[in-house]
Design goal:
Strand order of the largest sheet: 1-2-3-4
Largest sheet: 4 strands, antiparallel
Order of helices and strands: EEEEEEEEEEEEEEEEEE
Distance between the termini: 33 Å
Radius of gyration: 19 Å
Shape: globular
Number of helices: 0
Length: 241
């Protein structure tokens, strides 16, 4: 204790994962430390959701959603059995979608964006204690932060923030606390603020984390919880920090 270690950090090992795509990548690792990655091939190639996993013998990559313009804004998580779950955007129909693998088979679901609503940008996925998906995302039609959850096989979608002409909800990042309550960091574009929303007892509570007058801060957020206390990284666009 109290000793400063000055050893040089070990160098990174760089590996080629896939020659197809790589946009909107999201990574997690299984219990053995092997990486699982979701990503998008890009609209210039037709736009497909792909998934890669590291195995003992190397990388294995595959298309998960072969339809046109599927896979932007991916976010990946693993359930207790190590099976991948992915939230992403259907760019052809402006929908939020969700894919999960069970016993080797992939199933895909439409979550939000019916009736012409533009949902599913900036997705962030977390799984609750029972492995059920919770997703934060942005509705570009109404400029709202949205939150979606699956309960008993049915999907429920909620508007969280961005009312009365306020554009709030881009760059979302989601984490669940020990009680399963969702915490979301996101950018309020109208006011140039970094904001934090948490649902407790069925009600959403909001706070401005950073955003002095005349300063645009809060894009590119990422949130993690220490216990139930949020830690957030983000960009200060005004000062380039």
């Amino acid at each position: 204790l109290g000793t400063q270690l000055n050893a040089e950090p070990a160098p990174f090992t760089l590996e080629l994962v896939d020659t197809h795509g790589g946009e909107f990548s999201s990574i997690t690792v299984n219990k053995l430390g092997y990486a699982r990655i979701s990503y998008y091939t890009g609209s210039g190639t037709g736009g497909f959701l792909r998934y890669a996993e590291r195995r003992c013998e190397g990388w294995s990559a595959m298309v998960i959603d072969p339809d046109f313009l599927q896979g932007g804004y991916t976010s990946i998580a693993l359930n207790a059995a190590g099976e991948p779950r992915i939230s992403y955007r259907d760019g052809a129909n402006d929908n939020l979608k969700y894919a999960e693998r069970t016993a080797g088979d992939w199933n895909r679901y439409y979550v939000d964006g019916a009736d012409g609503f533009d949902a599913g940008a900036y997705t962030s996925l977390a799984l609750d204690a029972n492995g059920q998906p919770r997703i934060s995302h942005y509705d570009a039609d109404f400029n709202n932060l949205k939150y979606s959850e699956r309960i008993g096989g049915a999907w429920f979608n909620y508007y969280v923030d961005g009312f009365d002409g306020v554009n709030a909800g881009t760059y979302t990042s989601l984490a669940l606390d020990t009680a399963g309550n969702p915490h979301i960091s996101y950018y309020d574009e109208t006011h140039g603020n970094l904001k934090h929303a948490v649902r407790s007892g069925g009600n959403w509570n909001f706070e401005v984390v950073d955003g002095p007058p005349g300063v645009s801060v809060g894009a590119f957020t990422s949130i993690k919880l220490f216990g139930n206390a949020p830690r957030i990284s983000y960009r200060d666009e005004t000062n380039g920090d």
